[in-house]
């Protein structure tokens, strides 16, 4: 139904959370998925559980590893149909204390690597006149939060890259969209909840309701599978008229 049978997909940061859910959902539709991540142990374990999937390790902060990753895939697959730029990290600190090293690392992983991968996959997508690029943004692609300067800047920049890619690639049958979720229940967020509960000495459910989900109209976290369903739709033939968009899935967060 989705037209994804036999499509070749690459998902970054796929060893856990949202990336893993998207990789699994694409494989369930018959796509041949390469999962990549810096975490080799978890990445290999994840790929082993997904029929037809494989894992290739790569550090998204290193151009040379990104280049090698694409070369490796193109050796056996000849082309890449779907690219999901998902890898990401978080660092919370006031600008006055934010190190240049941390800033550069976050921008490299979350903005430069999507640019480099987009640049690498577009030629084979153009040749086949079909392609889907999904950039995993955030409500922080559209709204700011204090103490997250690099994260918010990278996610805003990623939306800019999404729009430019959409404009350049449209005539070649390639779409590019950003998915902008509010908080999703992933290992990254589970740790934040536990930390907040400890700091404020309140139960974890209260952290979810009063802190993490406070900005949303619907007071809950999203599940990775909900984001994966939106990703599937955007990759499908039914979404061929959607490009350059910031697709929010945010429990009403940005409705304010
Ligand atoms: P996660 O920590 O579960 O997964 C992120 C993955 O990226 C991990 O497997 C990690 O090993 C990998 N990674 C980190 N640095 C890397 C590097 N240098 N090279 C390759 N891989 C690397 O996190 P998640 O919550 O699933 O987040 C995935 C994406 O979704 C991120 O871009 C994040 O900003 C975005 N997002 C998450 C939420 C949320 O609430 N969880 C909300 C909005 C957007």
TrEMBL record:
Listed SUPFAM superfamilies? NAD(P)-binding Rossmann-fold domains (SSF51735)
UniProt cross-references to InterPro entries, sorted A to Z:
3-OHbutyrate_DH (IPR011294), NAD(P)-bd_dom_sf (IPR036291), Sc_DH/Rdtase_CS (IPR020904), SDR (IPR050259), SDR_fam (IPR002347)
| Pfam families in alphabetical order | adh_short_C2
NCBIfam families cross-referenced by the UniProt entry: PHB_DH, PRK12429.1
Q: Which family does it belong to?
A: Belongs to the short-chain dehydrogenases/reductases (SDR) family.
- Name-wise, this protein is 3-hydroxybutyrate dehydrogenase
């Amino acid at each position: 139904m989705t037209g994804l049978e036999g499509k070749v997909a690459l998902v970054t940061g796929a060893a856990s959370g949202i990336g893993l859910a998207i990789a699994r959902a694409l494989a369930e539709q018959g796509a041949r998925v390469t999962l990549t991540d810096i975490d080799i142990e978890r990445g290999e374990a994840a790929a082993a559980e997904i029929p037809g999937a494989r894992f290739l390790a790569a550090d998204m902060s290193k151009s040379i590893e990104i280049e090698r990753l694409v070369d490796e895939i193109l050796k056996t697959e000849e082309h890449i149909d779907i690219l999901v730029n998902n890898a990401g990290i978080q660092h919370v600190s006031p600008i006055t204390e934010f190190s240049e090293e941390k800033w550069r690392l976050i921008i490299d992983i979350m903005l430069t690597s999507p640019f480099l991968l987009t640049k690498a996959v577009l030629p084979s997508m153009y040749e086949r006149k079909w392609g889907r690029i999904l950039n995993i943004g955030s409500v922080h692609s559209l709204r700011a939060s204090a103490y997250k300067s690099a994260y918010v800047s990278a996610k805003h920049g990623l939306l800019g890259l999404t729009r430019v890619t959409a404009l350049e690639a449209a005539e070649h049958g390639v779409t590019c969209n950003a998915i902008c979720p509010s908080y999703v229940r992933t290992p990254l967020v589970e740790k934040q909840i536990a930390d907040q509960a400890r700091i404020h000495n309140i139960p974890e459910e209260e952290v979810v309701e009063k802190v993490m989900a406070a900005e949303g109209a619907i007071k809950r976290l999203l599940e990775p599978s909900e984001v994966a369903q939106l990703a599937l739709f955007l990759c499908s033939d039914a979404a061929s008229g959607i490009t350059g968009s910031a697709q929010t899935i945010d429990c009403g967060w940005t409705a304010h």
